[in-house]
Amino acid sequence: MEAAAGTLISGLVLGGMYVLVAMGLTLQYGVARIMNLAYGEFVVAAAFAALWLFSAVGLNPLLGLLLVMPAAFLVNLLVYGILLAPLVRRAGSPAALESDSILATFGLLFVVQGVMLAAFGGAYQSYPYLSVPVTLPGATVTANRLVALAFAAVIGGGVWLWLAHTRTGTAVRAVAVNPLAAQLVAIDVKRVAALAFGAGGALVAAGGVLVSMFLTFNAAMGVVFTMKALVVVIMGGVGNLMGCLVAGLLLGLVETAVATWVDPGLTLAATYAMFLAVLVARPAGLFGRAAR
Prior knowledge:
This protein is mainly alpha-helical. The chain has helices spanning 2-30, 39-57, 61-90, 94-120, 143-165, 167-177, 179-184, 189-212, 222-236, 241-261, 267-281; strands at residues 133-136, 139-142.
């Protein structure tokens, strides 16, 4: 019973991180139509920022969110304006933009990774923050995991409220559904796309900071986060936040259960087996709409 409860809580924590990270990619890919292959590198960069703030400055990583998230928003706006906006202007179709953005962000991946390797080396890093056991009914977990889950829920809920109950959020959702129709109701699609790309960067930075509180990480593991985020976004349905929530939690629970009760080496196989099963049953994703 205790093992099952511990697995459930660990799965929810891991799934919550997947949801938060994938929500950022949902905004960047589902709204801005940018397939950002350097996405995972920004997760790791945020983790290293939290490590540096904690180790060198002595700043609590939760307070570090107040610095890292706005900084990531501005950095992603610059990346969009300097690197990606020219691709958007010259792209003749969404397919052309997607292929161009894949090539551009593939190069950006190695730039960001190279900077992190030069600054922090290739060794795995971690830092002690709230690494104390907390006893819950049927399970014992570390406090940092519970705090990370709580903050992920608060940030994710705030994003949902922003998208569902503000004029700007409505514009973002309209562009995600149909950018051409959005232009007909006086929505500045280019501005909204840039805003969505920057907001996605802020979300991925939040995920990186929270993940750094309880996982080890190194400068070369960004591709892992990119692939997991893509799996969640596609499995849930591109541009659908509810699908992102369900798919992320499901992925975290499945990975934790396999690692606990079967073999940790099979977690990746379980991830892609579930991904393929969902796509066979629902090619547009759990909450996606099939093209007509």
